[in-house]
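Good morning C.,

I know you're traveling, so I'll keep this short. The sequence:
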Amino acid sequence: MKLMKSSEQQNATVIGEFILLGFGNTKNLNTPLFLLFLIIYIATVSGNILIITLVMAEKHLHTPMYFFLSNLSFLEICYTTTILPKVIANFLTGNKTISLWGCILQMHIFCTLAATECYLLAAMSYDRYLAICRPLHYVTLMNCKTCVLLVLMSWITGFVLISVLTSLLTQLMFCNQYKIDHFFCDFTPLIRLSCSDTWVIESVALVTSCLGILPTFFITVTSYAFIIQAIMKIHSVNGRQKAFSTCSSHLTVVSIFYGSLMLVYIVPTTDTFKNLNKSFSFLYSILTPMLNPFIYSLRNREVKVIIRNTLC
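The tokens, ready to paste straight into the viewer:
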């Protein structure tokens, strides 16, 4: 383990590398797990690239809903690429070390993308609310300029919120503990290893979490409450099914993402729940990006028709 002497503290050593414990002792399963995660990564990137390509190529998909969807697919590619290549390399080589700055960079990119996705999902929920609850004003309210502005604000806000945390994280010292009980560098497992006072950064993390998750979750829940209320007022069964089909895919993605995300940070972080937290982290950080293209394509009639026509 690489150690660097610090002149700031007597008899203290600052850790320059961490060991990602990952999913535990999997030496006998390295090859199968390598193949599994490689397949997941290829499927995730390929599926999301397919969505982006279809949206760009088909004029019928040049609508606000598919504009947000293509941005979500791009975000999912970045999301997965931040984590999976390192996980795959760990299984392939057996080397689970990661440098301090590499760990901080991975955490910064991952958390930025997670925060951005919260805002992007909220924007998609608002888009569906306008389309179903205010259809006569939809074209005016959700124009091209508004769509671009919502996407840019999602990326900028996510980046700014996490940059504050990252700047504070770089000021912490890591002295003795160097084993991260996770398969990637997440914020909470990382700061627990610090030998510095983490009260300030934990307080800022709580504020940024409230600013990042709570408003977007409230917007999403409120939007779908109005959407469901509007759908229930439709008298014909076919009309209800048609209205609900336009937002069911997005509602599925939102439920999986927010459900697993909240369970990771709400479930008590005791030894009993560590493996459970890893499972939920796997769900929202790796499995959800892979499933999104299938959810949107298999549950969306318009996308299925375009894919079928392209293949034929």
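Safe travels,
E.
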